Each structure stands twice: as structure tokens, then as C-alpha cells.
Amino acid sequence: MTKSFDAYEKISVATDVVILTSDEVETNNPRMSAPKGLKVLLVKRDEEPFNGEWSLPGGFVDVNVGIEQAARNKVAQKTGVENLYMEQLYTYGNELDRDPRGRVISIAYLALLNKENIQQNTDSNTKESQWFWVMIKNGQLLYSTDGKGYYLIDNLKIAFDHKQILQDALERLKNKVLYTDVAFQLLPELFTMRELQDIFELLHGKTIYSFRRFIESKVEETELISDGKAHRPAKLYRRR
Amino acid sequence: MTKSFDAYEKISVATDVVILTSDEVETNNPRMSAPKGLKVLLVKRDEEPFNGEWSLPGGFVDVNVGIEQAARNKVAQKTGVENLYMEQLYTYGNELDRDPRGRVISIAYLALLNKENIQQNTDSNTKESQWFWVMIKNGQLLYSTDGKGYYLIDNLKIAFDHKQILQDALERLKNKVLYTDVAFQLLPELFTMRELQDIFELLHGKTIYSFRRFIESKVEETELISDGKAHRPAKLYRRR
DNA sequence: ATAATAGTGTCTCTAAGACATTATGCG
DNA sequence: CGCATAATGTCTTAGAGACACTATTAT
What we know:
Radius of gyration of chain A: 20 Å
Structural class of chain A: alpha+beta
Strand content of chain A: 25-35%
Oligomer: homodimer
Largest sheet of chain A: 9 strands, mixed
Shape of chain A: elongated
Helix content of chain A: 10-25%
Number of strands of chain A: 11
């Protein structure tokens, strides 16, 4: 019944990383402030299978590299960021034909980073990559290329089961911001209440009342102020 | 930079399953009722590495079997139970030398079952297996062979990183019983409030006040009664 | 009667939902 | 000034913690 170690055919192991950051959507109205959005990094595949479709950054795990390290290496390659918050999401491998090339299981990670740390042009390979805005509304995952018009994620061609992974990632983050401090990983050191609140509201798809009261124990006020717009300026806060 | 599919050495993939059930601890006092405990199934290794130590039921994933199915097969082999609650816990694979035989990553599952469904002697192989009582007290994982004297888990010889997996499993269950209905999976269809409460209290290592109030929306009363002991009998409930 | 547990009631405290009110700076 | 947003205050409700009190059976 029990076969020995070497009797088992080995399996291809991959990691895929949902890399998220927050950024402000462009506005040219000097009265309105720029709303914050959540962005995920996708890369366009340039080979079969799913040639031309969008996919999560990822790749196969080398037999001499730990699984989380493999994911970190991929993030470093795509964004230049070395130290960042990362957590394991889930391992996908129930379907034998997830990947038409052969049996592949994939360990998905969630990586959160502050956009100020992102390096441009660090990727030594030539694959096209793009940040897409994402949000959850009525339990549905929406995406946008400009932060204004949001569409159902099904309208975007996404390779493998990566749509599911992305969905699972946002669902996890949605829950986790409520009982951990992960949300701060998405922002620079200094931020306004509104910027932080926008992240929570995007994930939950609804306005959060009395957000200040909810978050106040986790932040501390600074003397600095976010100025420039035609309305009352906001104090800047940092994580406590 | 990007190597092709076949350029990667494949990796051994295993699953390990934390199989839990609840059972009552023997008492011969006709006045006291039998307290409920949590039990985990461990198997004694009969080969290197870690020969003679206890380990979680598990094994390598066949290239033609889905990862969850592999875990389900293992549970069926050890307990005879085919339909049961199971969820993926975490994938262990950061350390390259988790297994001295070679690079192995392991996907851990949590399986919950009602002891009434367990078949005896279903295991066709000859490995010795044993149910150990477990509980969390002051954040520490304790085990017992008789449900009475509990000891630090470090006093038990456990193979690989399976102690960590077991710890992670109980931590997950501890949190999950609070916001899901998974606890019912550990009990027969009919149970008393005290049996259910015992499970919650074992996991949290403290008494839970007003447990009825907390759980009442999830259960429904039956006309049946748990009799036999020298004190007020308890109504039996079922999951709503 | 009494040991031992089942089951109910109540008081307090904290956190969240919903929203009204006041403050501030630029165009 | 008034638009747009920041920041504070308040009323209500839901739930958890802690514990007192009453009910019921076999010995």
C-alpha cells in the first residue's frame, strides 16, 4: 500500500503572487481630492498556453529555493522591492489540468507594498506588465484601467485559474484588514485618514461609518498636513 | 531569465492531515458526567527518517490525484470515513531540508469527523496509530493519552515539522469555531450544550460565559434528553 | 437532602452602525 | 461666500464578559 519515496512521480511546483499596492486616481479638478485605489500587477503572457492573456506574476519553484523565497524573488524581479509584507494564500492543485503543459500545483502568495518603494524598469525580461485597479462591489470583483470606469473581471482575459486566485486574495485581504494591521503595508509612512479609509471601503464595497473611531488606536497623529486642494486640509498620520 | 516548463526539476509533493474528532473521557463516577475532549490521530513511523516517532497521517501526492483528494484518500484509509469536512490549512515548504530524503513540500489539511462514523481496522497497512487527546492551555499545545493528565507537546516525539502543523491546525480551528459552524463537524447529529461548549473551551483554554446565548441561533432543541447521570439531564440539540 | 449539572436572568461594558454638527482652507 | 472635505459628537443597538439564581435528576 505504501510506496517508497522514490516510487512517486514528482510534480511541477509554481508560485503565483498577487502584488497589491494603493495609488491615487488622477483628477484634474482642483476642488476634489484624488481618491485612493487598489492596484494589482498583471503580466501579459507571451507564450502558450494562454498566449496574450493576463496572468499573475509567478513561475516555477526551483528545487533549491524555498517556496516563499521563490515568491519573494518574483516580486523583487517585477517591482524591485526586497522587503515587503507577504503571506501565503492558498495552494491550488485540485484540478489535474490547471496547466495544459502538465501537472502543476501552485502556491499563491499575497504581497502588499507601498508604491513609493516600487522601482521602475527593474524587470530584466521583456514581458509587458500593467497595474490594474481592482475593487469589490456587491461581492463582485471589478477592474479598471484608469481608476474611473470599473468593469466585471470576467471581461478581462485572465490565464489559468488566476482570476480565482485574485478573487481569493482580495477576499482574504478584505477580512484581514479588520483584525490585523496589514492595511498599512499598502501605504507610505505618512497618510491621511481618507487614504486609509478608502482602502477599507474599496475592499468592503461600502462606506464605513466612524472609521476614525475604529482606527484611532492603531495610528498616531503628526504635525504635518496634506495641503493643496480647495478644501480643509487633512492631518497626516503614521502607524502607531 | 525565464526558463521553460521542462527546465525545472520537479519536486516531491505530500499531504499531511490533522484528523480531529471529539470523544468523551472515561469516568466511573456516577455523579459526574463524562467531559468531552478533542482527539487527533497520529501514526507511528516504522521506517527512516524519524523511525519510531509519531507523525500525522499523510503521504506523497500521486501525479494523477488532486491534492485535496489525496488527503481525503488518506483519511478514508485511516478512518473509513468518506464524506467529511476538510479544509486546506497551509503549505509547508520554506525549509529545503524538512525531509532528509530530499526536497518535499507538504500541503496540510484539517479534517473534522464525528467519531460515530469512524470504522475500526480499516487501515490495510500495519502501521500503529493512536488517538491522542489535545488541548490549548495558556497558548500552549498539550496532549494526553488518557484524557486526564495533559503534558506539553514537546514531551512527545513528533516527526518532521508535524508538531508545528498540529499547532497551526488547532490555532486555525480555535479561531474558526467562532465565526463558522465547523464545530458541529466534530459531534454526532445530536449533542448536549455541554458537549459543544467543551469543544469551544478546550480550544480557547478558558471558560466561555453565556455560551447558550452565543450559540442559540445555530442550534435547535429536540425532545430528546441525555439521561443516566445523577444530576439534571440535558436536552439534546441538533445543528440548525 | 444533596451533589452535580442544566438552564435562565441580569447588569455592565465595549464596539459598531448611522448620522448630525462643526471646522477649515482655497477658488 | 460657498464648495468640498476634515474632524468631532451623539444616539442607538448588538454582543460579550461576569456572575447570580432557579430547576432537575439519581444517589
